Amino acid sequence: MTHIKFDTSKLKPFVHENELAEMQALVTACDQELRAGTGAGHDFRGFLDLPQNYDQTEFARIKTAAQKIQNDSEVFIGIGIGGSYLGARAAIDFLSSTFYNVKNERDVPEVYFCGNSISPNYLADLLAVIGDRDFSINVISKSGTTTEPSIAFRILKAKLIEKYGEEAAKGRIYATTDRAKGALKSEADAEDYAEFVVPDDLGGRFSVLSAVGLLPIAVAGIDLDQLMAGAAAARSDYQDSDLEQNEAYQYAALRNILYRKGYTTELLENYEPNLQYFGEWWKQLAGESEGKDQKGIFPASANFSTDLHSLGQYIQEGRRNLMETVLIIDQPRYDLEIPRTADNLDGLQYLEGKSMDYVNKKAYEGVVLAHTDGGVPVMSVHLPKQDAYTLGYTIYFFEIAIAISGYLNGINPFNQPGVEAYKQNMFALLGRPGYEELGHELNQRL
Ligand SMILES: O=P(O)(O)OC[C@H]1O[C@](O)(CO)[C@@H](O)[C@@H]1O
């Protein structure tokens, strides 16, 4: 019995029964490549065993640092971009109050993220939110040289120094970076910041269960042991390459079957606003892993029922290249009853006494049938609860599925060469030393 359930019951009009079985040989080969390390990008398979083999000493240091931050800071800032913040943001949103940063009664700091854009507005607004309150920062960059977080780090470090002075500021800077190299590593060593390691064998988008995600997640008061236990359970549940047993592999195979039939965009959907950032995390995981060699499923996300009133028309009747994967929380954190009224002015009498979750689930069922009838294949992933164990389990489900999916489509799921193109141009246009020739060429084209 797996902890989460992958439901393919509505795929019948789109996938013939034999098609999944026909994928078995390929899935078995991809599974062997992944586990034996004979596939492309094999140096970055650390996520496979991470829930079992993580560094216990580092894990304990993360918890201790989180406690210190909880005790001495009203505000905590995670600085990072892509895989260096999306997992933490997704986890904190998934597991916390929808309004965790504006709760009046709180025993953990407010948590914000920056360094994920180059917007001066965003950073100026964040500085105003911090105001003169006590704060700490966690700068997270595997390479240690990414422009967006580097700029944000400079600005926030200056604010720390202004408030606490050079020496005390250092005690409020937590650096998560490469074990040995990069500008951030050199600075952290020189300035004696508390340091945490991004393991060598993890790409950013697979790093949420390392210090990258775990320090911010722990600061937000989330139970790391439960998170890792859930991921470890998934690791043991998704060992078997048999498609009848392994639902993560089923998901990987089915989305590839559908992709080959022309369903080239996958929407990851939810019915709980707290899961919006899980969709953002998944988009990087899937997009950066699979969009290569002029192919790959385009990952998009939608939040329901909200987006049914914006994207719903397109999904129902627009271009037929969409497939959907719905994350559905079987038991929400809270439920509310729809109140009774003496009159029936709003016409809602037929819902009186029913729970909001009941209505939410009926919306889900209605949407699945409508979209299926409209020609959109829908898969669902049922999560029993919105807790840390389930989140850890679900993270692992998608990580291993996307890795296998990449191999099924014949690409290296663990590199991201295409991200460099914009960076090179930006450096050249900014006049970074060494980029003079390219800068000249680009400026002529502008
Ligand atoms: O942690 P870093 O090295 O700053 O990189 C952040 C993000 O940027 C990318 O390297 C792409 O540029 C992603 O893969 C990564 O998640």
Automatic annotation (TrEMBL):
GO MF terms here are: carbohydrate derivative binding; glucose-6-phosphate isomerase activity; monosaccharide binding
- Provide the active-site residues from the annotation: E288 (proton donor), K423
Q: Which family is this protein grouped under?
A: Belongs to the GPI family.
Stored NCBIfam families = PRK14097.1
Which class of enzymes does this protein belong to? isomerase
Q: Quote the Pfam families the UniProt record gives.
A: PGI
- EC number, UniProt record: 5.3.1.9
Example GO CC term: the record gives:
cytosol
Q: Where in the cell is it found?
A: Cytoplasm
Q: What is this protein called?
A: Glucose-6-phosphate isomerase
Single GO biological process annotation from the record = glucose 6-phosphate metabolic process
Q: Which CDD domains match?
A: SIS_PGI_1 (cd05015), SIS_PGI_2 (cd05016)
Keyword Isomerase present in the record's keywords: the answer is: yes
Functional description taken from the UniProt entry: Catalyzes the reversible isomerization of glucose-6-phosphate to fructose-6-phosphate.
The protein's annotated pathway? Carbohydrate degradation; glycolysis; D-glyceraldehyde 3-phosphate and glycerone phosphate from D-glucose: step 2/4; Carbohydrate biosynthesis; gluconeogenesis
Q: Which reaction does it catalyse?
A: alpha-D-glucose 6-phosphate = beta-D-fructose 6-phosphate
Q: What are the UniProt keywords, alphabetically?
A: Cytoplasm, Gluconeogenesis, Glycolysis, Isomerase
